[in-house]
Amino acid sequence: xxRLVESGGGLVQPGGSLRLSCKASxxxxxxxxxxxxxxxxxxxxxxxxxxxDARTTYAESVKGRFTFSQDKVEKTLYLQMNSLKPEVTSxxxxxxxxxxxxxxxxxxxxxxxxxxxxxx
Length: 120
Fold this sequence. Notes:
This protein has strands at about 1-5, 10, 20-25, 35-40, 45-50, 55-60, 65-70, 75-80, 90-95, 110, 115-120.
């Protein structure tokens, strides 16, 4: 079983930055596809980034402002978010999948989420 625990969410002013972390444990494997998913209030969930050894893919909505990285030794994922706008207010989830890796991956494993609020 894969366990994912996010941290780093909070309240940030528009234009600010925030870095989310996700600690992975359990039966993880380097071949897994890792991702970040968000769900804003009253909105459907959106896969915003995915990563495996071959490539990192971003949704158009975050491209250029968010950066997905990982420390494989520490089994920790990071999502650096810059130039934040109120519309990105969401609960952000770290996720993992086997097989196909991309924004359409089957992210079977997810963390409990961390809330990000962008407001002045």
